[in-house]
TrEMBL record:
Domain Fe/B12 periplasmic-binding: 8-263
Cited SUPFAM superfamilies: Helical backbone' metal receptor (SSF53807)
Coiled-coil residue spans: 114-141
Protein name (Swiss-Prot/TrEMBL): Iron complex transport system substrate-binding protein
Signal peptide start and end residues: none
Keyword Coiled coil: yes
Keywords: Coiled coil
InterPro entries from the UniProt entry: ABC_transptr_periplasmic_BD, Vitamin_B12-ABC_binding
PROSITE patterns cross-referenced by the UniProt entry: FE_B12_PBP
Gene3D superfamilies: Nitrogenase molybdenum iron protein domain (3.40.50.1980)
Claim: Coiled coil is one of the keywords in the record: yes
Length: 272
């Protein structure tokens, strides 16, 4: 007997929403995260029933979902509440680029769109290979400091670190990126960044605008090459901090653009 496919899906985070839209399966979505910005039409078409660590369980239950999809152990309490109500829940915990691709295949197969998911993965894998080819032409790989949050300082998560390497950079906090939780990526002492002497600083402060001037004015940071040469950039968090198609398309493209510009036009600031 053929298993029935989920027809009423609630997405607790942006990436399953983007994936389902990219697969042409958006009609299955009945609720989304309020933080969803990709694709933009989802915000107009779908009711918002969740933040990130909180959700309106009563609103979700009213939608009668046959599947709720989310991301991160930080959503464990939401998942537990829904499971107690008898709802089928899928929470993924992808942290690496290959896991992001695997998650696309998983969700695609769950909704009967396996071939479309394979095509999307092939497209995103092509982006990765193109970025690698561009990076191979660099005469030197710049040292890159990626800041996910400013107070406290939090360095980039693992897939960001991997994308920096794919784009041709060297993540100065690559060791920290191996930790799945943000607590162990907190930089308590600025001397750690200063000593690494990054040549590019990228900020992606989730929920607020990156402030290059504020970063440059931190005590001792004037000794960092990136500050001295005005190599401070912002990548909007929806492009890089969501473990879905955005990170492997627009997010990676922004990283490549920044690094390629550094290699060809040092001392200039990009308007991203």
């Amino acid at each position: 007997m053929q298993a029935s496919l989920p027809r009423r899906i609630v997405c607790l985070t942006e990436e399953p929403t983007e994936i389902l839209y990219r697969l042409g399966e958006q009609d299955r979505i009945v609720g989304i995260s309020g933080f969803t910005v990709r694709p933009p039409q989802a915000r107009k078409e779908k009711p918002k029933v969740a933040a990130f660590t909180t959700a309106k369980l009563d609103k979700i239950l009213e939608l009668e979902p046959d599947l709720v999809v989310g991301f991160s152990d930080l959503q464990a309490d939401i998942a537990a509440g829904l499971i107690r109500e008898g709802v089928q829940v899928l929470i993924t915990n992808q942290r690496r680029v290959d896991e992001i691709l695997d998650n696309i295949l998983l969700l695609g197969n769950m909704v009967g769109a396996g071939e479309k998911a394979q095509a999307l993965v092939a497209e995103l894998s092509g982006n990765i290979e193109q970025a690698r080819e561009q990076a191979a032409a660099l005469s030197r790989r710049p040292r890159v400091y990626f800041e996910e949050w400013d107070e406290p300082r939090i360095s980039g998560i693992r897939w960001v670190s991997e994308l920096i390497a794919i784009a041709g950079g060297e993540d100065v906090c690559a060791d920290r990126a191996q930790h799945p939780d943000a607590k162990r990526r907190i930089i308590a002492d600025d001397r750690e960044v200063i000593e690494h002497q990054p040549e590019i600083i990228i900020g992606s402060w989730c929920g607020k605008k990156f402030q290059p001037t504020t970063v440059a004015e931190r005590p001792g940071w004037d000794r960092i090459p990136a500050v001295r040469d005005n190599q401070l950039y912002e990548i909007k968090s929806p492009l890089i901090l969501q473990p879905g198609p955005a990170a492997l398309s627009d997010g990676l493209a922004e990283l490549s653009r920044i690094i390629q510009r550094w290699a060809g036009e040092p001392g200039r600031v990009a308007n991203l």
